[in-house]
TrEMBL record:
PROSITE patterns for this protein: PGM_PMM
Annotated ranges, domain Phosphoacetylglucosamine mutase AMG1: 344-481
UniProt GO MF annotations: magnesium ion binding; phosphoacetylglucosamine mutase activity
Catalytic activity from the UniProt record: N-acetyl-alpha-D-glucosamine 1-phosphate = N-acetyl-D-glucosamine 6-phosphate
Cofactor note: Binds 1 Mg(2+) ion per subunit.
Pathway: Nucleotide-sugar biosynthesis; UDP-N-acetyl-alpha-D-glucosamine biosynthesis; N-acetyl-alpha-D-glucosamine 1-phosphate from alpha-D-glucosamine 6-phosphate (route I): step 2/2
Designated name of the protein: Phosphoacetylglucosamine mutase
Keyword Protein biosynthesis on entry: no
EC number assigned by the record: 5.4.2.3
Length: 574
């Protein structure tokens, strides 16, 4: 498996820039793309090594998600489709930081492969690789493939796919029975992803309506009408990988009478740039409609995904053309003064929780014996969402630090774990114990069948905007809700986020799931004293794990107060 000379030769084509010191953060390795070829090559080595160590297929996704187009990144995927365990992050960083080829060989042999270095390489293992639409993708893909092949492991590129699709494929690959045909290992095609997700969706939805409106407009271009289902859904694809993939949902959504209109699809003729004034991160943080939405009427049902389509938020444009702007604001987003009425990841989580709650209430009680349901949030969850969970839904709630790996792990420890970051990244996880019970009960209980099908519709490996759109549309249709009805579940407290450039973000360390500052001494006391002056005030500051910045979050009774609280905390941080 391990030939030092081959490895050294391959590595010599990918020299690490001298002053570059990558670390594996919440988003994997991420940096300006020009710095990354050596890092991605070494991740190729590492993914191949992990495949050998675990005797299973692994994956690599090349993307910088919602970050600017000139950045890129790489994230490792484990055989179950989940993220690489945190215990492996230090050695990943060590490998990425090696200054020369000899060090790369040594770290890989001694720190990663160990005894396996002397075994022969199995011919049946593969590393599955995907990438987003960034111009740097081809060069970094070549680096990843070279890394995998340097360890004599099969490398399979799936081209431009969403991050959740790649995670799904890695899991699916490990569930296939190995075949002896052909030169390489048997691997799934992308179609298995659509077969699974759309298959579950079509079983959950009635057959297509016999009388579709001929021009697709009869159900109304706006969500402001009384009927919750059908109508037009405008999708902001962030000029990223989502555009091509979401197009494939068109026939499925027609089953609900929903017509998709895709915007920011990366069409060169329209000149839009990846994540630039568009995409889920922009919409959620700036609370503005994305570019390419000028003609979308106020009150229309819209959603936005990020560059690699693992985040999803919904929104309605407010104001401008009149429409039901006033009502939308009244219904819930005092935090969105002009521009949009936002339904963020918290709202998606609550919608899922309400619907799943409805189903759980219909299940035979013995099926739920000993079954634990929980909802996982971070400090960024709006206080009103947390209160709604606690007081109305009465669901156990867990707060974890920012970063999907923490939320995922917490959700995984329940039988049914609902987790979403406010920025729209999340999913619903089902335990094997619950699935086994649901399978056994499905024939006699429509509710058990429904929940079982939901587990097939919802990506079980990571948050997935594609499966998220289907889930939200299904629930709105089932409940006959408009965005206004959904928004009215609870009223968000006005909030404000700030991003501060500071000399050394490392000065700030936090505790209690990032809700309090531990260092520097005195900062937390100062924040606390300030917060106490604001009715319903809450605020925290934490170093970003993905950018060289400190983030401040504040919420309070009114937008002016939330802005003022954020500003005062920012002064204390500087
Ligand atoms: P940082 O930069 O650590 O705040 C951001 C998001 C996270 C998560 C990661 C990974 C916010 C406030 N933070 O992390 O939720 O999505 O990126 O992509 O949105
Ligand atoms: Zn993303």
């Amino acid at each position: 498996v391990f030939d030092p000379d081959t490895l050294r030769r391959a590595s010599s084509a990918y020299t690490k820039p001298a002053n570059f010191h990558p670390s594996y953060g919440t988003a994997g390795f991420r940096a300006n793309a020009s710095l990354l070829p050596s890092t991605v090559f070494r991740c190729g080595l590492l993914a191949a090594a992990r495949a050998i160590l675990l005797n299973a297929h692994t994956g690599l996704m090349i993307t910088a998600s919602h970050n600017p187009v000139e950045d890129n990144g790489v994230k490792m995927v484990d055989p179950d489709g989940g993220m690489m365990p945190q215990s492996f992050e230090a050695v990943a960083a060590e490998l990425a930081n090696c200054d020369d080829d000899d060090a790369v060989v040594a770290v890989l042999r001694d720190r990663v492969l160990g005894e396996q270095a002397s075994c022969s390489s199995p011919q049946t293992l593969a590393v599955l690789v995907g990438h987003d639409t960034r111009p740097s993708a081809p060069e970094l893909l070549a680096a990843a493939l070279a890394g995998v092949r340097a360890l004599n492991v099969h490398a399979r590129s799936y081209g431009c796919v969403t991050t959740p699709q790649l995670h799904f494929l890695v899991r699916a690959a490990n569930q296939l029975t190995p075949s002896q045909d052909g030169p390489g290992p048997a691997l799934p095609e992308l179609q298995v992803y659509f077969d699974a997700i759309l298959g579950a969706f079509s079983e959950l939805t009635p057959p297509p309506l016999l009388q579709q409106p001929a021009d697709g407009t009869a159900a109304g271009g706006s969500d402001s009408g009384g009927s919750g289902s059908g109508g037009t859904l405008y999708v902001d694809c962030a000029n990223g990988v989502g555009a091509e993939q979401i197009q494939r949902l068109v026939p499925a959504l027609q089953r609900l009478g929903v017509e998709l209109r895709l915007r920011n699809t990366g069409d060169p003729a329209r000149g839009g740039q990846l994540n630039h004034r568009c995409g889920a991160d922009f919409v959620q943080k700036d609370r503005l409609p994305p570019t390419d939405f000028d003609d979308v009427p106020a009150g229309a049902r819209c959603c936005s995904v990020d560059g690699d389509a693992d985040r999803l938020v919904y929104f309605s444009p407010v104001g401008g053309g009149g429409g039901d702007a006033g009502t939308a604001t009244e219904a819930g987003t005092a935090a969105a003064p002009a521009g949009i009425s936002l339904l963020d990841g918290d709202k998606v989580a609550m919608l899922a929780a309400v619907y799943i709650g409805d189903i759980l209430n219909q299940l035979p009680s013995e099926l739920l014996e000993g079954i634990q349901v929980c909802c996982v949030q971070t400090a960024y969850a709006n206080g009103a969402a947390t209160a709604y969970l606690r007081d109305v839904l009465r669901l156990p709630t867990v707060c974890t630090p920012t970063g999907v790996k923490y939320l995922h792990e917490a959700a995984h420890s329940a039988d049914l774990g609902i987790y979403f970051e406010s920025n729209g990244h999340g999913t619903v996880l089902f335990s094997e114990q619950l699935l086994t019970r649901l399978r056994a009960a499905a024939e006699g209980s429509p509710a058990a069948r429904e929940l079982l099908l939901l587990s097939g519709l919802i990506n079980q490996t990571v948050g997935d905007a594609i499966s998220g759109v289907l889930l939200v549309e299904l629930i709105l249709s089932r409940k006959g809700w408009t965005l206004r009805d959904w928004q009215a579940l609870y009223t968000d407290l006005p909030s404000r986020q700030l991003k501060l450039k500071v000399a050394d973000r490392g000065c700030i360390t936090t505790g209690d799931a990032e809700r309090v500052c531990v260092t520097p001494a005195g900062l937390q006391d100062a924040i606390q004293r300030t917060v106490e002056q604001f009715p319903r005030g809450r605020a925290f500051a934490r170093p970003s794990g993905t950018e060289d910045a400190v983030r401040v979050y504040a919420e309070a009774d009114t937008q002016e107060q939330a802005d003022e609280l954020a500003r005062r905390v920012a002064v204390q941080v500087y």
